[in-house]
Structures are given as C-alpha cells and as structure tokens.
Q: What sequence folds into this?
C-alpha cells in the first residue's frame, strides 16, 4: 500500500531523503535512499534523486518494498503489555532500554524482547527494526507502539506522517513558569559543535512544534504535560532547554548533575504518558496510557 505525503511551506528546500526520514521515522535512511534509487518514491508522479530539494505543495508517493527475512534475534526479556490486538501491540518501555540495535548495541533491545514474545512482526521497518513504527530515546520510558503486520505498519506510519497521532508526555523541568501553558515553535537541527546533540538555537532546521501545560509547581521545578505536533530527534528535551527549562537529569541539554537535597535520578525525567491513534483495520480510536514510571514518581515525591 502506497503512502502519500504532501510537502508544506516549512519543508521547502529540504533534500528528498531528509524529508522522507522526517515524515517516515520508522524507516532507516538507507532504506529510504534505496527506495528512491529504485524508483519507488515519486514526486508529482516522477522519480527524483535523493538530493532533490522538495518544493511547497509537492505530492510524494512512497511504495515500500518487501524486505528480506529478519536478522534481529529473540531474547527472553520481560515486557509489560499495555494493549494488544491482531494488528499491533503497545508496550510500556522502561528507561535504559534501547528500542533497536545500532551504534554498537546488538542485545537487550526492545526488538530482541518483542521477537521472543511474538515470534514475528512487521518487516517494513527493516531487518533490525521489525515492527518499530516510532521510537523513544533510551532514557525515555512509556508507551511504544509496535506493528505485527506489514499492513498495520504502513497504516500507522501514515498516521504518524500526517500528524494525526496524539502523543502526550510528562516532563519534570528546572525553573519557574510565570504562565500556565505555552507553545514552542523553533526549527531543530544537528548541533554543529557537539554532534551528539540537537539544537533549536539556529534559524534553520526541521520545523518543530511543542505545546506544554504546567500541572504542578515546586520551588525551582515544574511538572509539565507536553504534546508534540512533530517528532524530531530529542524534540521535547531540545525545545524545553531552549527556553531555559531543561528536563531534570538531562545533562546533555544543560540540567545540573546534582540536585541539592535529592538522590541521584539515574535518567532524565521524561515519560511517554499517553498515545491516541486509529486502529489500522477498524479505524476505531484507541487511547493507551502508561502510568508514571515508579522511579520518577518516587523522586518527584521527595521534592
């Protein structure tokens, strides 16, 4: 089933392969570039090179190709299932667990655990990313959707690409807020100095939008409910840090290593609390929630 995408004003001037990766995060860049070379990506009905610069109002049609057999191996690792049907499963990902293999990580991932529990998953995401429709950072806990079938994977990927999936996070941040809510609209790009970081302090990058509501305040801290309209790398962490409110424990983006009078947290305080989407086959609205991770609730209770 082909996936149709529309380029907006903020996408103009973006390389074709970069645009596809931002819209279809479930697929690797190598896989997307391979599809471009094979003519499986059409821009206004024509094949283009990966370096083609997308124009506003371009219509793209992506025809995902079948992939070779899975290579990720099954491991007997406990998983907490929040929701399951014949098309997909939603798990409660713990902090410290990488979603899929990469950058020297080959074992102990969510994918390894999923293959042990379910045997086979969607092959659309690639040999090392079976079933993975979207990702969470290693130290982010909470709801993660996984596709069992290729058809379900494509349907869910299209929902993410069209931004019809609602993703709600809980974040404890440093600093005091004078207002109860806010919105951050800043482009995000790779930090030119520290390549492991992203930044929202430059005028160029991929468009990103983050909304937040203050749920509770303490002296020097605030608990936020955060909604993201886009899914850029480290988006919530980058955006909150850019307005002077780094996520607690997130030293990469400026949070202090030690909080006076508090025990070490051992991770950053960001939790994927709720996700709302359409069931791929029936179209019914589904909402899956993950309670705040125990270590986060315990730490917050000591404030």
A:
């Amino acid at each position: 089933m082909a996936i149709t995408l529309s380029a907006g004003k903020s996408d103009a001037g973006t390389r074709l392969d970069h645009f596809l990766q931002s819209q279809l995060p479930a697929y690797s860049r190598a896989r997307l570039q391979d599809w471009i070379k094979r003519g499986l990506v059409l821009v206004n009905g024509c094949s283009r090179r990966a370096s083609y610069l997308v124009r506003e109002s371009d219509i793209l049609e992506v025809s995902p190709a079948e992939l070779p057999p899975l290579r990720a191996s099954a491991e007997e690792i406990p998983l907490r299932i929040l929701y399951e049907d014949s098309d997909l499963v939603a798990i409660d990902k713990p902090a410290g667990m990488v979603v899929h293999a990469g950058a020297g990580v080959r074992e102990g991932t969510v994918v390894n655990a999923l293959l042990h529990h379910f045997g086979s998953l969607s092959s659309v995401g690639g040999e090392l990313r079976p079933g993975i429709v979207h990702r969470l950072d290693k130290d982010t806990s909470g709801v993660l959707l996984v596709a069992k079938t290729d058809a379900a994977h494509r349907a869910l990927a299209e929902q993410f690409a069209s931004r019809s999936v609602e993703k709600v996070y809980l974040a404890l941040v440093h600093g005091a807020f004078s207002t109860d809510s806010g919105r951050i609209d800043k482009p995000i790009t790779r930090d030119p100095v520290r390549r492991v970081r992203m930044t929202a302090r430059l005028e160029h990058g991929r468009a990103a939008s983050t909304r937040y509501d203050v749920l509770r305040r303490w002296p020097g801290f605030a608990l936020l409910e955060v909604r993201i309209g886009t899914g850029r790398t480290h988006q919530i962490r980058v955006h909150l840090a850019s307005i002077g409110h780094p996520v607690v424990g997130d030293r990469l983006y400026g949070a202090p290593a030690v909080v006076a009078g508090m025990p070490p947290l051992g991770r950053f305080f960001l939790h994927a609390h709720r996700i709302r989407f359409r069931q791929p086959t029936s179209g019914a609205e589904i909402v899956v929630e993950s309670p705040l991770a125990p270590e986060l609730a315990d730490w917050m209770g000591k404030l």
Observations:
- The helical segments are 16-23, 29-37, 110-118, 150-161, 235-242, 294-301.
- The CA atoms of residues 124 and 150 lie 6 Å apart.
